[in-house]
Amino acid sequence: MTKNGAVPTSSHAHPLVDLDSISHTKQRIKDGLATRRPWRVMFDFHSMGLPRGVSDAFSSIKTNLAYFRSNYAIFVLTVVFFSLIWHPTSLIVFTVLVFVWIFLYFLCDEPLKMFRFQIDDPTVLIVLSVITVVLLLCTNATFNIIGALVTGAVLVLIHAVVRKTEDLFLDEEATTT
């Protein structure tokens, strides 16, 4: 309504839904999820095998954790989600945290800037992980959360050890040249 009580008749009123904004958000979600590696590459059975020694195992863990970082984060978050199905309060907190993860980690196409400082990707991952664990532990689902985190970490480490890394370097070189 205008100041004199009349209903405005202009067709240029702001729409309730900004289609450009929705389209831009959808594109950012697609681009953000594109930073994860394809699941078929991650679970390629031809690229699985035991390392030759402890040093090879540690090298494989380091390479795979860096290469599949987004996939591992999605996997652990999914394990935690399923562990919270019978704890509705924790599930609500977790759902809110998932949206925080999506916007601060998965959809960030450039490093996060806070108080004129640039925060790199691994730091955001660690801080979000700690905040997620602390907030979920405050919801009285401690044993479920700890069990889910241990289960997720063990499964990630097992994958990181047995996933060969020879073909991962070829993919990295192909994308940089």
TrEMBL record:
- Where is it chiefly localized? membrane
The membrane topology term of the UniProt record is: Multi-pass membrane protein
The record's subcellular location field reads: Endomembrane system; Membrane
| Keywords linked to the UniProt accession | Membrane, Transmembrane, Transmembrane helix, Transport
The transmembrane segments are 66-85, 119-137
Q: Which domain of life is it from?
A: Eukaryota
Q: Which Pfam families match?
A: PRA1
The record's annotation in InterPro entries points to:
Prenylated_rab_accept_PRA1 (IPR004895)
- In UniProt terms, what function does this protein have? May be involved in both secretory and endocytic intracellular trafficking in the endosomal/prevacuolar compartments.
In which family does this protein belong, per the annotation? Belongs to the PRA1 family.
Q: What is this protein called?
A: PRA1 family protein
Q: State the organism named in the record.
A: Camelina sativa
Q: What lineage does UniProt assign to this protein's organism?
A: Eukaryota, Viridiplantae, Streptophyta, Embryophyta, Tracheophyta
Gene name, please? LOC104765162
